[in-house]
Amino acid sequence: MNPNNRTIHWTGAGFLVVFALCALLAGDAARAGQRYPVTGFYSITQITDLGAEVRVTLHMRLVNTSDEDFSSAKFVLLGAHPWVRIRGTIPSLFLRPHSEDSFTEDFTLPHAEYERWLRGGQPLLVMQFHAANGKEMKQAVWLIRRPAQREQ
Question: Based on the structure, what is the number of domains in the chain?
Answer without folding.
Answer: 1
